[in-house]
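We include this case.
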Amino acid sequence: MHPDSNPRFVSRLTRNTLALILAGGRGSRLQHLTKWRAKPGVPFAGKFRIIDFPLSNCMNSGIRRIGVLTQYKAHSLILHIQRGWGFLRGEFGEFVELLPAQQRIESNWYEGTADAVYQNLDIIRNHDPDYVLILAGDHIYKMDYGTMVAYHVESGADMTVGCIEVDLEKAQEFGVMGVDDQGRVHKFQEKPAQPEPIPGREDHAVASMGIYVFNKGFLFEQLIKDADTAESNHDFGKDIMPYVIDRYRVMAYPFRDAKTGEQSYWRDVGTVDAFWAANLELIGVTPPLSLYDDTWPIWTYQEQLPPAKFVFDDDDRRGMAVDSMVSGGCIISGSVVRHSLLFSNVRLNSYSYLEDCVVLPDVNVARSCRISKAVIDRGCRIPEGTVIGEDAKADAQRFYVTPAGVVLVTPDMLGQVKHYVR
């Protein structure tokens, strides 16, 4: 096979790389969706979890030594990884290890992203990688980390940062970098009030993706120094980056499509509005992220479920879904679904109508309901005759309504006290 025809950059570099996925954050902007689960454990795209995307990127990139650092309400996330990611062979040096906050070095819980890695230094030393890849566990994208590691080595960097271009008005939410013509980072600001634009492109800024490649020894030096700095926040963006850019060789790796040179797909589904929009993007005719790409599959825990079923074909009671994605185990019984994404084991009963909805697993919608522009959390039992999405004031009295008018419904909002920790 010609090397250019292989979409994956698998080499000795990736085999000698240890990936650490930071999955301990709550993601409070997702409101009630993260009340009982960490953000990386939130379901996404019909049958996956957010964590599946960086994990799958590692698998597809040939990086088979992975640690997942967990902290906030991690039970759901841990169950998912145990069930779906236990297929690697330890005797071949392949693993997905769970690294919960366990006070290995300090008596504190993880106090920041850098501190989370620092508290696992003994484990990293035992694995003895040449390079350490630090990943955020809460973003949606497909990326060959092998090309980034190769870029890091070829450029002679001490640290390499994955970056994207973002609209200037959104750049306040990111770490913004100044990058010279050679790709070297010379300036960094964490969530600046007035982001510095790209020279010649005043409406865009270069933003950090929260993805870093380190030489092992350099990472150890910086984490130990940071841990000894009392005034530090112990965070890669707030502390490590500003310190190293003036003293060491820090390179920016632009996340672009290898064929077109255009910005690659990347989403931070950190708000309910962003979560709703990113899910509904997937049902388009030509979505920006294809789940049907067999060259870069997304792996997950696969429940054994029967196919989706659509029943009744009467004029006033027809089970149908149009412009939608419907997952296994769903039963659409005499109801209509339009422009919506249904996760596994969703049951819709007769005379109900859903439009522009994202419905998480194990939801039951009773008869004669009308629901639009909503996110329905796992395990909800929607009572007969419920109307959601037509009266914002009435919705706000019972549920959470986002600035864009998306209605989030969870079991506790419905008076169903069962906590769905999955």
Observations:
- The longest helix spans residues 216-227.
